Amino acid sequence: MIYHFDKSASVSLVQITDCHVHNEREQLLSGVNTHDSLGQVIDGIRAAGPAPDMVLVTGDLTHEGDERAYRLLLSQLERLPAPYFWLPGNHDHLAPMASIGSEQRLRTKQIILPHWQILLVDSHVEDEVAGLVAQSELTWLATALREQPDKYAAIFVHHPLLPVGCDWLDPQRIANAEQLLTLFDNTPQLRLVCNGHVHQEWQQERQHYWLLSTPSTCIQFKSNSVDYAEDDFPPGYRRFTLHTDGSFDTEVMRVGELVRVAGAPRGYGGDYN
Ligand SMILES: [Fe+2]
Ligand SMILES: [Fe+2]
Predict the structure, then answer these.
(1) What is the distance in A from the centroid of ligand 2 to the CA of 185?
(2) Distance from the CA of 187 to the CA of which of 24, 34, 141, 163 falls in 20 to 30 A?
(3) Residue 68: what pLDDT?
(4) Using N-to-C axis directions, what is the helix angle for 67-77 and 34-47, rounded to 10°?
């Protein structure tokens, strides 16, 4: 589905990612109540001043991928002060996403603006941790970029394309990243590719575009770690302003503190990110 967004001036976006909402409202992830930390982030977005034009929720929406968790997730997302769009991560399942999030907007993959287009790419493989962009998805993406040569492009996807410097995480990046990078290197109107999955802030410039990662709305992974390790940084989100000349501003925002329940088990139980 294509969503046409009628705004001629700069556009403000917010990306939230890796919400990992559980089936049960009180369930914890490494001692953190993921439902409540998402609530903290949404409160932070609401308190941060003028509402953004839209919010993109970039995968690992839920932790187990069950219908109950998507219902809890939606009850939180409904508090966002802007229309929101989602894409799946490795923890998500498409069937409950489709049945619970039945609103047409949530099936949007392409958002058309006067000066930009925003593309939401599916890199998830059911029941796999690592990412892959299916050939059908790649064909759709290449066509969407080719058909809008006069619009700057911003791409959002769950898994990263490049290593972020964590030995345990980097093998999980998109398996066919080279195919995507070849496409992107040959798409001069592309300006940014932004992912989740790595639960940490990261950025790298490449030719005419930037690759960026955004912190999770719950637990954060420690940068440059060989093995699984967490940081105690607060939950976060990223905001963007897309300007009409193809430039953009972006900033990671942190909200409050990371709240861990004392005595709760730490770690991820072997089911990483
Ligand atoms: Fe993930
Ligand atoms: Fe995640």
Answers:
(1) 27
(2) 163
(3) 96
(4) 20
Domain annotation covers residue 261: no
Whether 272 is covered by a domain: the verdict is no
- The answer to whether 161 and 193 are in contact (CB under 8 A) is yes
Question: How far is ligand 2, taken at its centre, from the CA of residue 197, in Å?
Answer: 4
Locate 211 and state its tokens. Answer: 């690759």
Q: Which residues have CB atoms below 5 A from the ion given as ligand 2?
A: 18, 60, 273
pLDDT tens digits, 30-57:
999 999 999 999 999 999 989 999 999 9
- CA 149 to ligand 1 center in whole angstroms: 31
Place of tokens 């900033």: 251
- Using the mean position of ligand 1's atoms as its centre, give its distance from the Cα of residue 114 in Å: 32
Write down the pLDDT at residue 5: 82
Burial class of 102 by CB neighbour count within 10 A (0 to 12, 13 to 18, 19+): exposed
Task: Looking at the CA of 220, name the nearest ligand.
Answer: 2
Inside any domain, residue 140: yes
Per-residue model confidence as pLDDT tens digits over 113-146: 999 999 999 999 999 999 999 999 999 999 999 9
CATH number of the domain that 11 lies in?
Answer: 3.60.21.10
Tell me the residue range of the domain where 122 lies: 2-254
What is the 215 CA–ligand 2 centroid distance (Å)?
9
Task: Tell me how many domains the chain contains.
Answer: 1
Q: Flag whether 99 is in a domain.
A: yes
Quick one: residue 238, left, alpha or beta (phi over 0 = left, psi -120 to 50 = alpha)? beta
Residues with CB under 5 A from ligand 1 (ion): 60, 89-90, 197, 273
